[in-house]
Amino acid sequence: APSSFIQEDIKGAVLNFIANSGFEASESLSLNDIHSFKEFVQNLENVQLLNSHLSESGKYIIPFPLFSGDQFSFGQLLIDLGQKDKDDENGSSKENSLLKVSLFLDMTNLGPVRADFSVLKNNITGGFQVSDQETADFFNSMLSELKERLQTHQFNVHKIECRMVEPEKLAEKSIINELLKSEDHGLSLMI
After folding, report:
1. 93-141 pLDDT tens trace
2. Collapsing DSSP states into helix, strand and coil, what is residue 104?
3. Which of its termini does the chain have fewer beta carbons within 10 Å around, N or C?
4. How many CB atoms lie within 10 A of CB 137?
5. Please, what's the b/e burial string for 73-109 (b: 16 or more CB within 10 A of its CB; e: otherwise)?
């Protein structure tokens, strides 16, 4: 039954909630809230579309909720296991494959943060991108401790850095936005 589906599906529940609000502000729901709900549903649809396409190439995007005070948003984690090849089909391990991990957070106090790391065997390299100098200084002050901790776990740390990027450009570096705009995935969205 449709009602049981809506109870089990978060996207359906949010769509039902928006429909019942009449798309109008009320005492309990502002226009900003309605816009946030619509954006939430659009993001869920984008993630569903991306994951159905990306899983064939060994890439997986995982959104996760972030709560801060009365703010609710999603972080984004992309795990790239590399192109699937003949070794994968035979079940043998890909010991020498490159693992790429990207993380995007839009945090209340730090602003948008993008982290991109690559791991090959026990070698690691990567970096952080942040939107203001104070945050960059904070990250840079913590890099030596991060490198030491990775080394205690038997990683050879080649390069880890933090750099500042213009806030508008960093917001565009949302993993989902980047993947949707990427032409090399052969994904076209028409509205």
Report:
1. 556 789 999 999 888 788 889 999 999 999 999 999 999 999 999 999 9
2. strand
3. C
4. 13
5. bbbbbbebbeeeeeeeeeeeeeeebebbebbbbbeee
H helices of the chain, where? 2-8, 10-21, 31-54, 86-90, 133-152, 167-172, 175-181
Q: Assess contact for 100 and 128: CB atoms under 8 A.
A: no
Length of the chain (residues): 191
Residues 129/163, Cβ–Cβ less than 8 Å: yes
Give the span between the Cα atoms of 141 and 44, in whole angstroms: 35
> Which residues on adjacent β-strands are paired with residue 107?
111
Beta bridge partners of 73: 66
